[in-house]
Design a protein that fits this description.
By secondary structure, this protein is an alpha/beta fold. Helix content is about 30%, strand content about 25%. The strands form 3 sheets. A 6-stranded mixed β-sheet has the order 5-6-7-3-8-9, with helices on both faces. A 4-stranded antiparallel β-sheet has the order 11-12-10-13, covered by helices on one side. It has a 3-stranded antiparallel β-sheet with strand order 2-1-4, covered by helices on one side. Helix 2 packs across helix 3 (about 95-110) and helix 2 (about 80-90) runs parallel beside helix 4 (about 125-135). It is globular.
Length: about 270
Amino acid sequence: MRVERVSKRYGRGRWVLRDVDLALAGGEAVTITGANGSGKSTLLRMLAGVSRPTRGVVTGRPASVGFVPDRFPAGDAMSSVAYLTHAGRIRGLRGAVAARKGLELLDRLQLAGGVRTPIRALSKGNAQKVALAQALLVPPGLLVLDEPWSGLDATAHGVLGEILREVTEGGGAVVFTDHREAVGRRHAATAYGILEGRVNRLPAPTVVGAAEPSRIVLVDRTGRAMPLDWARQPGVLAVGPGPHLTVRDTESDGLLLTALRHGWSVEEVRRCRR
């Protein structure tokens, strides 16, 4: 997918974006940073195809696009399962299939408040989970998310990170914004910044005095923990029996969330030397 010489303004107002050039490849995760009002949401809407450039062209957009906007219609009187069923049917799914997939996604994101509760009665974080679910009803070739972690609880943070990895591992492209650059860097190898309407690729951060890795020991106290391929989890440097894991310090929180979500108990966490 390519963005070529794209500029955008609304009516006769100021130019929000000027001469943007981007290339997005399948399997790539990209984060967009910038101050409030810099044009991040405008750029994402053009990538998703819900807004047209004033000048320039966007080509190669995949047929299946999942989009989570910055403002989800949280005042809707429909329940989350009714909304997802309707959204799935619009995207070509049969009603029963859309409802099943929607319920599976809400269960994975651990929606609180009930799937038949009107969306307007849900908290901001739980309404955000419904927004995420609608974007994933059909496997996206391009997943576009505007501040997707906003309002989510810690467990859903970990699940969203898993979902982003699954999309890129399946060959899809992911583009998202977050006001915290550290979060963006954790989930995307490529970062762009917007300043005064111009979009520029940001250099990779220089690591100085990197923290020692963490040693994490997990146990299955219930006998029902879900087996995982620990070596493939982000940040895992080594796997021993138990499992005993050596994990990159910046990824240890995410690994712990994944382990707890799959039924594992944490016996020990400590710093260790390589």
